[in-house]
Design goal:
alpha/beta, 8 strands
């Protein structure tokens, strides 16, 4: 009589564990919402205001931010290290010229700016130019707002009797997620999908912020190693096309809201660091043979080495040879820009840096397209676009905006913010009420006022 061999049931243990994990995850989703990380709490806040109304001797307060305190107690305007809150009176006093500054983090400033932002420079220059007038600059800038929120706040501002509104949209668009987040993006590497899935699990949140970040970083590394360059190009181009679409849609909504305002509205032209910020993501968007790739790498390396030793002409020679193989690789254009800049060929350097920006595959970079349509959209609504780009070029010693005017790719330095402030003042001055003889007063150059401490603000180191 034959005995049956007992089948192995090894798979029951992992299956039982998987079922237990799934049930635990489902239970956690029903009863627990993981806390937001500190950085998320900051960037998701929007600017808020405390409106102090004075009628018939009675003072009332309305805020669009914090909860109201007990009756008669002025509400706190929040933590000034995070946002730039404002308190102002309604109805507006007759002798006050009220100016709102609306925008995203490039004009918001930040902790490292010593209390300076676009609003502070704007107010200083206005007081210097027209000391006979009473100005009120209200900062309505905050970090990482999208275009819908900017449009909403622009409409909200109209209820507070503004005389002028200055807007800097920056990269404020409906959120364009990292590659792989949307079906519209095309190729989605499996491991990236896994990262997106894992990072939202409640069980992973239980591991703690540090462990969770290490796990996600490991998965991202695997994804990068597994992903091929053809997929990278496909994803980058799809993200860029999506970015262009949502940017232009955002511009139209903002322009429409601005045109409907009772205030005089102007938009700043978007500026980005060219010379001081290397490309974030260089890709071969052309198909190269193995030999071509090897030659390209050698030429790029030789160009960087020649640049490091100060041989600018040799650097340009080998970098031009690399471009002949592939002119879609952003870092080659950037290195050419550095060589041309060092050789004192400013206009050519500017063109090379612009090409480097345009070839950058990262969706974090602000490209010329769709920034150019901002001018066309504003023209349709008869709104002013202030020439920030030309002002930054003129302020740069080499003719190429770099780290003397920027802290990173999109955030201006103190000098950069002072230049934007000056632009706004020059636009407003002809529209202000006429003054007496000797008005307006002459203004010092932006760098002359850059490091003076602000009244009531922290000292500038």
């Amino acid at each position: 009589m034959k005995h049956k061999t007992k089948r192995s049931r090894w798979w029951l243990a992992p299956l039982s564990l998987l079922i237990l994990l799934v049930l635990t995850e489902m239970a956690l989703r029903l009863i627990w919402e993981p806390p937001q990380e500190a950085v998320e709490e900051i960037v998701r806040l929007r600017p808020f205001y405390v409106v102090e109304s004075q009628q018939n001797g009675v003072t009332t307060y309305v805020t669009n931010g914090n909860a109201l305190p007990p009756p008669g107690v002025p509400p706190r305007v929040g933590d000034p290290r995070l946002l730039s809150p404002a308190r102002f009176i309604m109805p507006k006093p007759a002798d006050v010229i009220r100016i709102f500054v609306l925008g995203v983090s490039p004009i918001y400033g930040g902790l490292e700016m010593g209390g300076y932002n676009l609003s502070s420079y704007l107010l200083r220059d206005l007081k210097t130019a027209r000391p006979d007038l009473r100005f009120e600059v209200i900062d309505a800038a905050a970090q990482q707002m999208d275009s819908q929120m900017l449009t909403e706040i622009l409409g909200e501002i109209n209820t507070f009797a503004p005389d002028f509104i200055l807007t800097y949209v920056g990269g404020a668009v409906p959120s364009v997620e990292a590659p792989g987040r949307h079906d519209l993006l095309g190729a989605e590497p499996f491991l990236f999908r896994l990262v997106v899935f894992v990072q939202d699990l409640r069980l992973v949140h239980l591991l703690g912020q540090s462990t969770r970040r290490k796990l996600l970083d490991s998965l991202f590394t695997l994804d990068h190693q597994a992903n091929n360059e053809e997929e990278d190009v496909n994803i980058a181009e799809n993200v860029r096309r999506m970015s262009e679409k949502v940017l232009v849609e955002g511009y139209h909504a903002l322009a429409k809201a601005g045109a409907g305002s009772s205030a005089r509205v102007a938009f700043y032209e978007i500026v980005t660091d060219l010379a001081g910020s290397p490309p974030l993501w260089s890709l071969h968007k052309k198909k190269l043979s193995k030999t071509e790739k090897t030659n390209f790498i050698q030429l790029l390396s030789a160009g960087k080495q020649a640049l490091a030793t100060g041989d600018h002409e040799q650097a340009l020679t080998v970098l031009d040879q690399a471009l002949a193989i592939d002119d879609t690789y952003a870092d080659v254009h950037y290195q050419r820009g550095l060589a041309l800049q060092a050789a004192g060929r400013g206009d050519e350097a500017y063109e090379a840096f612009v090409k480097a920006r345009e070839a950058d595959a990262s969706h974090e970079r602000l490209f010329a397209e769709p920034v150019k349509p901002l001018h066309d959209v504003l023209s349709q609504y008869n709104l002013t676009l202030l020439p920030s780009g030309e002002s930054f070029r003129q302020a740069s010693a080499s003719g190429v905006p770099g780290r003397e005017l920027f802290r990173d790719i999109t955030h201006p330095s103190q000098k950069g913010l002072a230049i934007l402030g000056r632009l706004g003042v020059e636009w407003m001055l002809p529209q202000l009420p006429p003054g007496g003889e000797g008005m307006p007063q002459p203004l010092p150059p932006p760098e002359a006022i850059m490091h003076k401490p602000l009244p009531g603000g922290p000292p500038v180191k």
